[in-house]
Specification:
Oligomer: single chain
Strand order of the largest sheet: 3-2-1-5
Distance between the termini: 48 Å
Radius of gyration: 20 Å
Largest sheet: 4 strands, parallel
Number of strands: 10
Amino acid sequence: MNKYTRKDLKIMQAWPLEQKIQVTQTRILEWYIKQEGKVFVSFSGGKDSTVLLDLARRVCSDIPAIFVDTGLEYPELREFVKTVPNVEWLRPKYPFFEIITRYGYPVISKEVASVIEGARKGQEYFLKRINGEWLDKTGKPSIYNCEKYKYLLDAPFKISDKCCYHMKKAPIFRHERMTGRKAIIGTMACESMLRLQKWLMQGCNAYEATHPISKPLSFWTEQDILQYLKLTGLPYASIYGDIAEIQTKNGLKLKTTGLDRSGCMFCMFGVQNEGCPNRFQRMQITHPKQYDYCINQLGCGRVLDYMGVAYRNETEESNENTYEIAV
């Protein structure tokens, strides 16, 4: 049985920022007390985890942070992390190229990649979902079916959702086992269907979960994060640029002048939904050294070609050598 409803989330997302801050810090303190202080903030250097770490340390200044140096971060993020005190750096057991060789490329989304991988292995549940045959409790086709991505079954490359686990989660899990500390992470329910479902079932502090974890920003939105950064003047990674107000059909909205997101540089999750220029087209201009490694050496170019996703700035290629390499 779910702990919350979608209506609950809508109400909480509409709260003023001040109320969200109070509730989030209460959840952090509850988690800290329950775990007898044996906690840490999972800190990626991104804007969400930057806000989370600031909120946590305003509650308990001694909370340490853990940064997993995957080798896939934007260089600006790594430089920013170096400026933050009390951060321990971890490394994954395997490099990215070994993960995609062994398991496959991260495409579309974690959920879809998992379905593709399972369907290729002949697993009935995943075959039904990729064929649009999985039914919900009412007997209607499930909203979690993925038939629009059935074409990926024939792709001449491996597909998997295992990348995030091996590159990010596994080092964190090892740290938890070694130290007994429990994580506080900066994910939000609005980011994916999976994160929404988890929050509906468990709430912010998943005490009884198989893997206990705290997600005290779950009811926040992207606008809340930007508003917090703007109001507090909290330093954040330069890769995002400035925070500016833009006019939309729904009124004024905050937006970064640089990157919107700063996940792993070579991740292809969600790129099919981005406009032009997408993350790879921007990377070609801002980080040409990493772009070449990703597209040509790691083989992400052929994957994007198969998906029909553009990754080149055709008008810029003739001037490619004039770009500065931001490393």
